[in-house]
């Protein structure tokens, strides 16, 4: 496991990925790599050392030059490891499918695993125009809401946070940035685009359509299971945006 962690950590650097892509076509010396990537040989040598330390590349001498090539065996083993994670029917000495996430992850795939009990919804987020507590009115669109009011059903506490992604490009809402990192279990809103729904769902956050009335009325409807959950294919028609 540790070796794969080192490999995937190394792949988090763009230059190292570019080196791998470059030498996947044919072997190349450090000078040639530097010329193609338009960086210094010293920078290439530094990245090559890291890639060699984790056995992703190998070098062999031809004349006065050392030619670097992919270590296909190591790359193939890394691919198989990823396939093992994706395919929850495959098993190894540790059954990847049965591993529980850390920190009470509520990712939809974890929640759907019948070995992991889905946690009840406790924190509900309402996009609003102004903070009037539970008397606030749900806003018509998630991404352009100035504020979010978060209601904790367990403690009955109510707090508000500003939209941290208010100036985002159309259709490119980043929900967690908008929520300023606040952890919530559900969002209740008048309108929302499919992109934001899918991003929220991928983090285990359900999205429901608000009804007419204030937050208090919507909370009552939620507790009575009367709120409709938005499908992932929902098209938002807020101000004719259709995204």
Whole-number radius of gyration?
Answer: 25 Å
How many individual domains? Answer: 2
Strand content: 15-25%
- Overall form: elongated
What would the average pLDDT be, to the nearest integer?
A: 79
Distance between the termini: 41 Å
The largest sheet, given as strand count, sense and whether it forms a barrel, is: 6 strands, mixed
CATH topology of the largest domain: Nucleotidyltransferase, domain 5
Biggest sheet strand line-up: 5-4-3-6-7-8
Helical content class: 25-40%
Low-confidence runs: 89-117, 238-243
Output the helix-strand order: HHHHEEHHEEEHEHEHE
Gross CATH architecture of the largest domain: 2-Layer Sandwich
Number of helices: 9
Tell me the total number of β-strands: 8
Q: Just give the CATH class of the largest domain.
A: Alpha Beta
Coarse structural class:
alpha/beta
Pfam family, one: Nitro_FeMo-Co
Protein name: ArsR family transcriptional regulator
InterPro entries: ArsR-like_HTH, Di-Nase_FeMo-co_biosynth, DiNase_FeMo-co_biosyn_sf, HTH_ArsR_DNA-bd_dom, MTH1175_dom, NifX/NifY_domain, WH-like_DNA-bd_sf, WH_DNA-bd_sf
Domain HTH arsR-type: 1-90
